[in-house]
Amino acid sequence: MEGKGIVFVISAPSGAGKTTLIREILRRISGLSYSISYTTRPPRPGEVDGKDYHFVTEEEFMEMAREGKFVEWARVHGALYGTPKENLYPEPGTDVLLDIDPQGAKQVKELRPDAVLIFIVPPSMDELERRLRERKKDSEEDIRRRLSNARKELDQVGLYDYIVVNDELENALQYLSSIILAERCKTERVLKEGIRWRV
Amino acid sequence: MEGKGIVFVISAPSGAGKTTLIREILRRISGLSYSISYTTRPPRPGEVDGKDYHFVTEEEFMEMAREGKFVEWARVHGALYGTPKENLYPEPGTDVLLDIDPQGAKQVKELRPDAVLIFIVPPSMDELERRLRERKKDSEEDIRRRLSNARKELDQVGLYDYIVVNDELENALQYLSSIILAERCKTERVLKEGIRWRV
């Protein structure tokens, strides 16, 4: 933990706009990189292996799980997702952004108690439903399952350090980048880096 | 404390550039107002009574002190300065920014344990000395006293939540405004405001 980069965890119910937020924040903030997870689900259009995810087979995934290489892994909507442990210890000066669900966030917090947990919420449940329907990706059954999962995830919000309401993209981005920059100014972190201005 | 605006405390050794930072941050961030202190020192050129300070006589000041109207008051470089208690309880949605020294910051923290303490530091002690000499406001004796005070104040930095290094004005402003916006996203504050997005 000592002298390592900061671990930022972002969770959100699907449809809260997390993917766009994360893509934009990585473009705007320097010294921040995305933690690439492993998954067994097939790539969606535009997703790149080794950039968005490491796409692996169920067998490959389970082999890594047995070797204890994951912070956490879980089956979500049928597919396996896992966060490699090594991603939690970035070099000093390079912070890492993890995109995981509340259950995974809890595991991260156990290994890195100084991890910063951010929850993205839609402006309302009605708006979330509207967005899920609008993107026309999911069946009616999928939408219901996602809404039910969203309600469960929202119950976990107390675990998180920050809540960002994604009402309007630019607003949400400003809050999100503010959280990252502010955390870099936390006294204990600045002092660990060495007090340049000390006599 | 419940449902009140956030109290931000900013401290800095003189010459760290605090005054400029505060003026700019108040222009840029909405819902943030400056806590006007009382002082017995004469106004400096450009300072306005009731805006920069309430300028009062030593007698008026001591009367208020006796009535317990100050969070803290102190004699600094010969003059009396006091922060009125009522400034610590702004209305919800209006945050307040206090400009006080580490001793005062400690008193604020006792009345408002949720106050957010920010310390502005110069890039180095050499740079601080250079800035103090450059502004040509102080005698050699003043400069030495200010440098000695700065060293004492820097020892108090552990009391603070955040450290902002004022190397370059725009950088420092970005960090400072990030801290303010990030604090507004803290889970306990968002939850107190009511969970709009809750089912």
What can you tell me about this protein's structure?
The structure is a homodimer of 199-residue chains. In chain A, strand 5 and strand 6 (79-84) form a beta hairpin. Chain A is globular, with a radius of gyration of 17 Å. The first copy, chain A, has helices spanning 18-28, 58-66, 102-111, 125-134, 140-154, 169-184, 187-192, and strands at 7-11, 32-34, 37-39, 53-55, 70-76, 79-84, 95-99, 116-121, 162-165. Chain A has 199 residues and is α/β, with parallel strands linked by helices. Chain A has a domain at 7-35 and 93-192: Rossmann fold, CATH 3.40.50.300. In chain A, 39% of the residues lie in helices and 21% in strands. In chain A, the strands form two sheets. In chain A, strands 2-7-1-8-9 form a five-stranded parallel beta sheet, sandwiched between helices. Chain A has seven helices and nine strands. Chain A binds chain B through residues 119, 121-125, 128, 151, 154, 157-158, 160-165, 174-175, 177-187, 190-191, 196-199, and chain B through 119, 121-125, 128, 151, 154, 157-158, 160-165, 174-175, 177-187, 190-191, 196-199.
